[in-house]
Amino acid sequence: MTDSPAEPPADPGGSGASAREPEPAAPERTVTVMRAAAPKKRRSLIRRVVYAALGVVLTLIAAFAIFFFWASGGDSDERELAPGIRFENPDGATPPVEVRELAVLAYNVGYGRGPAGDLAGPWSEEHVRAHLAGIGQQIRDSGADLVFLQEVDLDSARSHHIDQGRELLQASGLRFASCSITWEKNYVPFPYWPPSKHYGAMKSGQCILSRFPITESTRHRLPQPESYPWWRKRFYLNRAIDHAKVVIGTTPWDVFNVHLEAFDVENRMDHARRLATLVPGVSDKRRVIVAGDFNAPPPEATQKKGFVDEPETDFSGDETIAVVRALGLSEVLPDPASFTFPADAPTRRLDYIFFGAALEKIEARILAPPPGPWSDHLPVLSRFGIR
């Protein structure tokens, strides 16, 4: 009889096959190590992405900061008192020695854009030149001897870098001019959107054109509104009062070209008070002319808010013109219904001519001949006899 195979005895040394069976666990330890390394790789990848994103953000912030301070820079003369830029038109007529009458024109020309507002641009070079030609012809036809201009671009991208001071002097037929810079920036990003409407490089100001020699010219730089945030002030203009000496015949006269604050009442009244300190300092108050865009209606105006074109504008409590009237000068258009703005549908007066006792008014009127208007303001013309 054949015996059944006996069970193998246990291997006391653990060297048998049954003792070697657990050895496949080694790969499991390898899998465990690999699983632990995967989260580390993911964390490393996330860290790199975060660092890259942070680098992009910091680069963009740095680029914006560089652009901001470059764009809002560019002012060539930040002094409160600075000389005006005087020049001549060699084709202008020789000034007369004997002068018995004087014609004065105050005109905010709106840098040749026409009656449309700032948001309506940009404007083609052809459009701007056509409006400048119309303005120049209007000045020539008026027979003005002294012209007080505001919003004159001297080298701005928005008006195709035309030197409008020289252009208008040539077109007017007058001989002498003095301009002051009130707004000079490397790049003005307004209107804000779309970027194609941005003004870009800005050099703008105000000018006096004259039939008679301008022997001196000083720009009195005016402060910006305190209510504006610092970043807005960086791009905002500094309005000005230009004080020029003009020899009419053989006699020196003091003339002041004015462009006061438009959007902040307190700042505008401060500008008027500063003007009121300058005028009394002249040598002969009888021979004084103060003209320009005061950006305020007279106190007796029947409408001071609720304007269709500017519903946010409110002149209630505005004493700008009252401050100027306190100088004791005469005014060419005392009628509160003599409106100069907006030119295509006037509802208020913002533009004025004040004069001293050496002048006697012959006539005064607001010019609006066809095919104008050439600006968003209507010009004010007055003729005087010289006493």
Brief sketch in words of this structure:
With 387 residues, this protein is of the alpha+beta class. It has helices spanning 17-20, 25-71, 125-142, 164-172, 230-235, 265-278, 320-325, and strands spanning 81-83, 85-88, 101-108, 146-153, 176-188, 200-210, 214-221, 240-248, 251-259, 288-293, 330-331, 351-355, 359-366, 380-386. The longest helix has 47 residues, at 25-71.
Count the strands?
Answer: 14
Helix count, DSSP H or I runs of 4 or more residues: 7
- Could you say how many structural domains there are in total? 2
Mean pLDDT: 91
Q: Can you tell me the CATH topology of the largest domain?
A: Deoxyribonuclease I, Chain A
SSE arrangement, N to C: HHEEEHEHEEEHEEHEHEEEE
Largest sheet: 7 strands, mixed
Can you characterise this structure?
27% of the residues lie in helices and 26% in strands. The protein is elongated and about 125 Å long. With 387 residues, the protein is α+β, with helices and mostly antiparallel strands. It has two domains: 23-71; 79-386, Endonuclease/exonuclease/phosphatase (Deoxyribonuclease I, Chain A). The protein starts with 16 loop residues before the first helix and ends with a strand. Mean pLDDT is 91; it is low at 4-19.
